[in-house]
Each structure stands twice: as structure tokens, then as C-alpha cells.
């Protein structure tokens, strides 16, 4: 008689939470660097003698390569593996932030633009495609919405850290924009180190699982069809409706945030401390609530309904911002912006952990990198085009121009809501995949035969 020893895959143990922690640290480091134009807009204007339209162009430059890169990055991930792709694109982050440091030192705005271009080449593939594909691998069939919620929370933690510390670093070092860029560079190096640790952990997990597989399981794994560009033709309408919702909803929220500090100053006459607090508020709310919402959605599903609710919250905030108020009465303006930002925070806390876990539900397992890549490409097309439009609207910075910006963001939010409603009806008539709770997959167990067993197997 032989004993059988079954060993649970790391993906089914608490090690997955350690991996999630590494992902969160990665997100924080990236977002501190990527968000610096929005939190240092006034400092950039005074250092380089540029206007708010140029700040919006920095975001367009960052997003421009990602109109195509996340798609090809997704194909690269599916072809060469997520670990190799993550390290390749992380190197672009290091180069990009180094160029930003040099641009700040030389006071050369063109070098800053080039740095944002390299940050864009590396940033979105790493943040949106590679990290999402890794999380799906480690949490599929488990707490996937919770994992995505925690990941997105720490993206916003990075934004909050940047918003609160970068202006202080600027002042502490004698109004030095160079010091801010060096501060960001340190975090990029930490991010690179984190990606190495993630790759080592994932590689060890893969080898450990493969060593325990039977020959039949290995054969079946190797017989999986390779990713092909033609796989895109198999993506259904729900995937493309999700893409439209994603690009428009994120664009409306992120463009508002990117221009928020300057809008709070020019349109609402708020103090610096009020500006920083109100800018950070949606991220604080998201950091506090998103993991709870993610866990809740894992249990009950109903994702299309939550998409509709979150879209209406975003529309409500733009309606509040479109209201004319007398900003000579400071408290009245602060109260209005506070209400709008509270609603924005609830929107973001609800929308983010709903939209991203929908993607692996709608695509085949071997095309998930491509699925995340395409939606990332579409999202960045919007984040390239829309900031240019907003930059034109804000060419002459004044309260009226910011109101026109709100009208524009409200328009694209309405289209996003129409897409959310169509997702709901499409899912109802196509198997209710998005409405269903996350399904627990059977535990992956590896059998090591040591002694003969008659009928029963002992699990250790």
C-alpha cells in the first residue's frame, strides 16, 4: 500500500496575499511618479514658464504610446510570459524617470516630455496589463474582485502620497523641482526591485506546480492553443461595451483630478491646504472602501448593476460641478466641491473593483493578456485625445473655461452610462456571466505517490 501526499498550489494558500502585497507596493511607486504633473502643476508652470495646457499635454504624451502598446504588450505577455514582459517594461520606467530628473536639473521642458513618453511606454503595460494578468493568475476563481480592489486602492495610495509629499519636498529643498524628481526616482527604483521579487516568486510557484503535475497534465498544458491576433475576433460585444465604459468613465474622472488642483484655485478660490485635501479625498475614500466592495462583489456578483450605479454617481458629481456659485463666499464653494469630491470618491471606490474583474470573465484564459491590453489601448486613446481637447478648452485659464471643461466631461460620462446600461441587457440575454458571483475553482492538488492506498487518500 502506498501513501499519497497532496500538496496545494501556492495560488491556493496565503502566499497569494504576499504576492498581492508586492503588487500593491509596485502600484504605489509607479503612481507617485506618473501623477506628478497633476500635483505639481503650479510648480512646473513656474519652473518651466508654461501654462496649464502644457500640463495636459504631458498627460497626452504619457498616454500616446499606450494607444497601441497595451495591445501589443498584451500579445507580448501571452507570447513570452508575463514575468519577462514585466521586467522589460519596468526598465522603461527607470529610463523615463531618469530623463525627468535630467529635465528638471537642466530646466528643459522637452526632456520632461521625453521622460513622460518613456514613463508611458513602461507604465501602462506594467500597471494595467502585466500586473492585472498576474493577479488574475493568482486569484482566478477566488477573491478576484477583492484582489483587484486592493490593487487599485494602492494605486490611489500612491496618488495620495504624491499629492501630500511632493509639494512639501519642493518647499523643503528651496523650491526645487529637481528634488521632487529625485524623490520620484527613488520610488521607481523600489518599484523595479519589487518587480524582481514578484517574478522570482511567480517563477518558483510555476516550477513547483509543474514538478508535481502528472505527464497527462503537462501534455494538456502544452497543447493549449497559442495566442493569436485572430483571437481578438472571438471577443464578444460585452467586452467592447466594457472598453467603452472604461475609457469614458476613467477619462472623465482622471482628467477632472488632473486639473482639479488648478480648478480649485482658479474657479473656487480655495486655499492650498483645501486644494490638496479635496484632490486627495476620492483616493482616501477609495483606499478605505474599495477592498470591502471588492469582497462584497465576489460574494453576490451583480456587476452590471454596480456599473450603472457608479456611472450615475459620476454624472451626479459633474452636475454639481456645473452649478454656478458665488465663490466670494469661500465656505459655499468649499462645501460644493467637498460634496462633489465625496461622490467622486464613492464612484471610484465602486467602479474600479467592478470593471477590471469583468475582463477575464469575458475573454478566454489564454487571451487574458491581450484582453487587458486592448482595453488599456482604448483607455489610453481616450486619455491622449481628451486631455488635448481639455487643454484647448483651458487655453485661457479662467472660471468659465473650467465650467466648459465640466460640460465636456459630463457629455462623455453620459455616453459611458449608455454603455453600462447596454452591458446590463447584453449580460441578461447571454448567460448572466457578469451577474454571477465569483466561482470557487476546485483546489489544485498535486499527488506524490509514496505508498499504495486502497480506496482512500490522505491529504497532508
Automatic annotation (TrEMBL):
InterPro entries xref list: MFS, MFSD1
Record has 4Fe-4S as a keyword: no
Record localization: Endomembrane system
Entry's Gene Ontology molecular function annotations: transmembrane transporter activity
Protein's membrane topology: Multi-pass membrane protein
Transmembrane segments: 57-77, 84-105, 111-134, 146-166, 172-201, 239-257, 277-297, 304-322, 334-359, 371-394, 406-426
GO cellular component: endomembrane system
Taxonomic superkingdom: Eukaryota
Keyword Transport set for record: yes
Protein family: Belongs to the major facilitator superfamily.
Protein name: Major facilitator superfamily (MFS) profile domain-containing protein
The organism of origin for this protein: Paramecium primaurelia
Taxonomy of the source species: Eukaryota, Sar, Alveolata, Ciliophora, Intramacronucleata
Amino acid at each position: 500500500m502506498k501513501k499519497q501526499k497532496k500538496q496545494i498550489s501556492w495560488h491556493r494558500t496565503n502566499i497569494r496575499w504576499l504576492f498581492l502585497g508586492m503588487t500593491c507596493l509596485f502600484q504605489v511607486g509607479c503612481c507617485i511618479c506618473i501623477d506628478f504633473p497633476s500635483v505639481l502643476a503650479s510648480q512646473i508652470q513656474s519652473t518651466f514658464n508654461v501654462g496649464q495646457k502644457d500640463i495636459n499635454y504631458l498627460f497626452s504624451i504619457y498616454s500616446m504610446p499606450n494607444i497601441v502598446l497595451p495591445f501589443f504588450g498584451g500579445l507580448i505577455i501571452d507570447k513570452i510570459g508575463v514575468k519577462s514582459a514585466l521586467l522589460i517594461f519596468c526598465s522603461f520606467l527607470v529610463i523615463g524617470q531618469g530623463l525627468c530628473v535630467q529635465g528638471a536639473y537642466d530646466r528643459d521642458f522637452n526632456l520632461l516630455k521625453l521622460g513622460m513618453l518613456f514613463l508611458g511606454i513602461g507604465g501602462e503595460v506594467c500597471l494595467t496589463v502585466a500586473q492585472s494578468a498576474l493577479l488574475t493568475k493568482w486569484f482566478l476563481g477566488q477573491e478576484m474582485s477583492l484582489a483587484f480592489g486592493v490593487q487599485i486602492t494602492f494605486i490611489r495610495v500612491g496618488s495620495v502620497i504624491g499629492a501630500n509629499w511632493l509639494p512639501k519636498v519642493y518647499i523643503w529643498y528651496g523650491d526645487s523641482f529637481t528634488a521632487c524628481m529625485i524623490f520620484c526616482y527613488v520610488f521607481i527604483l523600489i518599484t523595479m526591485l519589487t518587480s524582481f521579487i514578484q517574478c522570482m516568486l511567480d517563477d518558483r510557484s510555476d516550477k513547483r506546480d509543474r514538478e508535481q503535475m502528472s505527464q497527462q497534465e503537462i501534455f494538456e498544458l502544452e497543447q493549449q492553443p497559442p495566442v493569436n491576433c485572430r483571437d481578438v475576433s472571438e471577443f464578444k460585444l460585452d467586452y467592447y461595451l466594457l472598453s467603452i465604459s472604461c475609457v469614458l468613465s476613467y477619462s472623465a474622472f482622471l482628467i477632472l483630478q488632473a486639473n482639479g488642483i488648478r480648478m480649485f484655485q482658479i474657479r473656487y478660490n480655495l486655499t492650498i491646504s483645501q486644494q490638496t485635501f479635496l484632490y486627495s479625498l476620492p483616493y482616501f475614500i477609495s483606499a478605505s472602501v474599495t477592498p470591502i466592495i471588492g469582497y462584497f462583489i465576489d460574494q453576490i456578483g451583480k456587476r452590471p448593476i454596480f456599473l450603472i450605479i457608479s456611472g450615475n454617481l459620476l454624472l451626479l458629481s459633474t452636475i454639481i460641478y456645473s452649478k454656478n456659485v458665488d465663490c466670494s463666499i469661500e465656505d459655499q464653494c468649499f462645501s460644493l466641491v467637498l460634496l462633489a469630491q465625496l461622490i467622486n470618491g464613492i464612484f471610484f471606490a465602486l467602479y474600479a473593483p467592478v470593471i477590471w474583474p469583468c475582463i477575464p470573465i469575458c475573454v478566454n484564459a489564454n487571451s487574458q493578456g491581450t484582453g487587458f491590453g486592448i482595453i488599456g489601448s482604448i483607455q489610453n486613446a481616450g486619455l491622449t485625445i481628451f486631455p488635448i481637447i481639455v487643454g484647448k478648452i483651458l487655453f485661457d485659464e479662467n472660471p468659465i473655461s473650467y465650467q466648459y471643461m465640466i460640460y465636456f466631461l459630463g457629455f462623455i460620462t453620459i455616453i459611458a452610462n449608455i454603455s453600462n446600461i447596454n452591458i446590463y441587457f447584453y449580460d441578461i440575454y447571454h448567460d448572466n456571466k457578469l451577474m454571477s458571483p465569483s466561482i470557487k475553482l476546485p483546489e489544485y492538488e498535486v499527488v506524490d505517490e509514496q505508498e499504495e492506498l486502497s480506496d482512500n487518500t490522505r491529504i497532508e
